[in-house]
Target: 3-isopropylmalate dehydrogenase
Amino acid sequence: STQRTIAILPGDGIGHEIMAEAVKVLESVNARCELGLNLEHALVGGSAIDAHGTALPEATFELCARADAILLGAVGGPKWDKLPVAERPEKAGLLEIRRRLDLFGNLRPAILYPQLADASSLKPELVAGLDILIVRELTGGIYFGQPRGIRVLENGEREGYNTYVYNESQIRRIGKVAFEAAQKRGGRLCSVDKANVLEVTMLWREIMEDMAKDYPDVELSHMYVDNAAMQLIRAPKQFDVVVTGNMFGDILSDAAAMLTGSIGMLPSASLDVNGRGMYEPCHGSAPDIAGQNKANPLATILSVAMMLRYSINEPEAAQLIEDAVSKVLDQGLRTGDIFSPGSTLVNTVEMGDAVIAAL
Amino acid sequence: STQRTIAILPGDGIGHEIMAEAVKVLESVNARCELGLNLEHALVGGSAIDAHGTALPEATFELCARADAILLGAVGGPKWDKLPVAERPEKAGLLEIRRRLDLFGNLRPAILYPQLADASSLKPELVAGLDILIVRELTGGIYFGQPRGIRVLENGEREGYNTYVYNESQIRRIGKVAFEAAQKRGGRLCSVDKANVLEVTMLWREIMEDMAKDYPDVELSHMYVDNAAMQLIRAPKQFDVVVTGNMFGDILSDAAAMLTGSIGMLPSASLDVNGRGMYEPCHGSAPDIAGQNKANPLATILSVAMMLRYSINEPEAAQLIEDAVSKVLDQGLRTGDIFSPGSTLVNTVEMGDAVIAAL
Ligand SMILES: CC(C)[C@H](C(=O)O)[C@@H](O)C(=O)O
Ligand SMILES: CC(C)[C@H](C(=O)O)[C@@H](O)C(=O)O
Model:
């Protein structure tokens, strides 16, 4: 096959450790399946601030822009939390990549691995077999809306303000991602909004309703965001695909991931209109355990699989990795976050090695 | 004691049934404890639209404005969902009372009744003894921010927009409610924001931080809203008091309530600067079971207790009601929403009668 480039951005905190394992796995399938992938590394986030004074150096962005796919670890940490928000790893690094590459389609699966059924804080019968896909709009809404800022009022006190805004085409393009995902899955799509209060989500609801006519095989429903948060806790298996805006998606996808009790297992994809994208674990940079060889590398390893499937079009290689992960779980190997009595505690590197061995 | 007025607003759906039971209980303690409360009824929401063409008739508002406290059932239902949002029961009724009376301080306790430990979807050990108070700002933020609407862009497509805005004094006054509540409880306050992305919540965080100096006995922490949604599911007992804005509070308070598995048990208060307020159950108008004598009246009955405690200053009468509710739970009486095998299924009226008997 032709030479393709993967941008490898470890980021900060545990990002380095988990990425090292993911790269081992990627190199292994790259050789074995002759994928012809060329891995190029670059700094982003706090590590880029330390080395180059900016969270997204132009060389890093240039690599991201020409790569066939991006694999990201995680960014941020207390070391950079004193910086103005606009310069921090999250906003100047992560959100800038999303925005500049227009990675508007965020896919966040929340899957309960049968081997980890006990890890959930919910009762087993409520989550057994859980398999939800949250589709979150990622480059619009209140995250990027203008005007925004903090201004001084006439009476001398300050006021902070942000703008929650979506236009029709932004809603349609994320709707398309969600309807198509529902077609490939269980055929049910739940659009989450707050259309009883917010005008921007009234438009959202209207457009989703309009699009439903073009997808007669998808059953569309609507739910208010407060109810969605409740229903995720009460009966999460009622959902198939959920589509929502950037802010609600941030909250609901994290809640959904936590329902599985193993956020250290969950990958995510952020795609542009052509299906090019960035892949990263759902979890953060976990500064509290960084550098301790404790972190769970499986979410990043599964992000590699997701990348091979969605952006590199190598579903067999993806399946190999997913099967290997399933095998190490069957073997009872667990990092601390998913450990339960009776299983075998392993560290980050041991987990990566076990996946390689299982490949 | 002097003559005091309570506005009774049953609202829509199950509102009528649950309010009838709450009024029975209130009349009973009113007589027994000689509270001198004068109950005046009025229509709000859909029932007011049907009778008077508007969700908040002036006579209803006038009663609310002069009453010492307001007891509300619930508003809304499919019958009025075809109306323009601005005329619907929720926005033109409920949100208008909140706004016009400036009921900015919303207290939403999430308490797990020991008798109902099984009702939670979380594992018992994670929620046993759960007792969180969510303090939600209720008359500001994106719910009421201007500008808002749906406009046509130059290219002919539409764009929806809302404004998330808080000024310093709005933040300070809800902060005061929250810090004082934390002082009276476990001394811990967690302020929830999205200060890594939204400027309005950067100001929020800064003001909370500043106020903390005046409350050395309260331990203030901050959490991003996505993490808060996860932590509520992972380990809800880590929280004592949570303070947040209107939109995040809507989502998190419903999630917290659902953790208890018995949202039909939870009251709420919405207070102005003088502690005058409106009391209502956390649940909605449940059109699906309206008129069937099935709804759980205990959240409304407990709202009566909360009202007597916070706005009417009759803590003993409040305690009487709370003890009576605890007694009927001990007796194993359950409405459908909290029913579990081995307990006795009762209907709305029977539950109300049992509370009266236990008084
Ligand atoms: C780090 C933060 C800015 C980011 C977000 O809010 O989008 C993160 O929470 C996520 O969900 O990827
Ligand atoms: C009915 C709706 C407008 C309301 C809100 O969002 O505030 C409700 O969800 C609540 O929490 O009281």
In short: The radius of gyration of chain B is 20 Å. Chain B has a mean pLDDT of 96. Chain B has two domains: 1-112+263-359, 131-259.
